[in-house]
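Chain A, query sequence.
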Amino acid sequence: MLLKRLLGRRPVGAALIVLASALEMAAFPLGRPAYLTLQGSSGAVAIAVATALAACATHMWFVPGRATRSGWAAVTLGVLSYPLANLGGFLVGMVLAMLGGALAVAWRTTPSHAVQQR
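Chain A, predicted structure.
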């Protein structure tokens, strides 16, 4: 009951998908930190984009009223990751960021009186 009430007011799916995209984008550059200097700016940008996506997921979780803004930021970072960060985490991270961002943009809270009537 408490878990349903807590999770029902947050974009849980969107936040988890955006966090998964951040982890996927950071996995390749941080897989072998010794090679990070060989990757050049692409590796550094991939880590920066992954950090920003993780911040978006955290913002969605803790400030659900403004999840739309974080969703748009996640979609934008997903699109920007394609040319800047290892083809967007080999396309998987980019698709996850865009999917999670789209879910956050479409997410709406339910009115409190609708929850109490059930």
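The mean pLDDT is 86. Helices lie at 2-7, 12-31, 36-39, 41-62, 67-84, 86-90, 92-106, 112-117.
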